Amino acid sequence: MNKLNIRNDVVQEIISNPPNRILRWGNTLLFAIFLIIFFISWIIKYPDIVKGEVIITTKIEPVKVKNKVEGNIKKLYKCNGDNVKKGEIIIEIENPLNNESFLFLNNLLHKIQKYLNGDIDNIKNLDFEHKNLVFGNAQNEFNLLRENMEKYINLKKDGFYEKSKKQLEIQIQDFDLLGKISNEEYINKQKILKNSKIQFNASKLLYKENIISRKDYFEEEKKLLCANREVLNQKQVCIKNRISKNNLKKELEDLVYNHQSDLRKLKEDIKSSINNINNILISWKHNYILKAPLSGRVYFYDNIKKGRLIKNSEELFIIVPKNEKYLAKIKLQPQGLGRVKINQKARIKLYEYPSHEFGFINSKVEKISFVSKDDQYWGLLKLENGLITNYKKKLNFRNCA
Q1: Can you tell me the mean pLDDT for 46-62?
Q2: Does the structure show a pLDDT above 90 at 59?
Q3: Checking CA distances to 51, which of 61, 69, 116, 205 falls within 20 to 30 Å?
Q4: Domain ranges of the chain
């Protein structure tokens, strides 16, 4: 009972003494702070995060080069990381036609083409002899080309043709001269015939008047007939000369035509062989010679070495342009795409470079595609400091590509 009274007295004392000012305003202060926090959280929203898959590349994108045929690597012309120029040979694959054979054929075809176009002096540089070179699929065409070129050159230099042509031309000239002489002779005999007719007509009148004898009359008639026969014979000579001359002209035309026809036929066969060999060389370059499609640095994929068997469509190396500005392409899902705005900041974290050790790359949204592809949108990010992270560490582009 005493204990109960004591507790009641203590409680009565606490109740009877009101709390001081701090205790009275404490609840009000806490309530006000809560309202302020609620108001600030309503105004300043926590940023939403939109994630996407990023590919870092250059303005001129790196180009991957694949093999077009199966075969063993014969030669590597460049080492990993070397600078290359557009068109330089990177890899040669084993095949019957090697690079030396290619250069030999390419140079030979160029010379032959110049010779066929009228550069006669270029014939001195034509040389079909080769030092144990193998031409593979082009061997048959090469042999045919050499055979036709030898025939063509010999036909162009054919002494028998030139001699025959010269003889026919001389004979035609002789017949021209003979024709002039025959025509003059024909004219003279026509004059004689004309005089004989006049003499015969006069003798005929005298014979009718019995001034001359019958014998004299027949003698004049005989002279007229002989003169007429001479004219006809001379006319035959002129015609025969003209026919002989025309025959010679025809023979000359046939000789020239057949010669030109043979040359034309051989020239067409040579051009056909040139085209066939060029097609083989183009196919060879396309399939067995891998060149740099652009200037930059070459980086080989794993296990690329001389003698290795490579399969068709196997990726062998990549050419990375030099001194190109880096950019990032981001793949975005439709969900949450409306939150992404132009010039919005973005952070790029790479699997190869853990963000807790290397940091992240700062960037800004530069472009967003208007249409989707495979239910995904593409965006373009501008790298503010290139491949330098917020930890001031420069990343290697080769591992980011």
Answers
A1: 75
A2: no
A3: 61
A4: 2-43, 53-57+322-400, 63-88+292-317
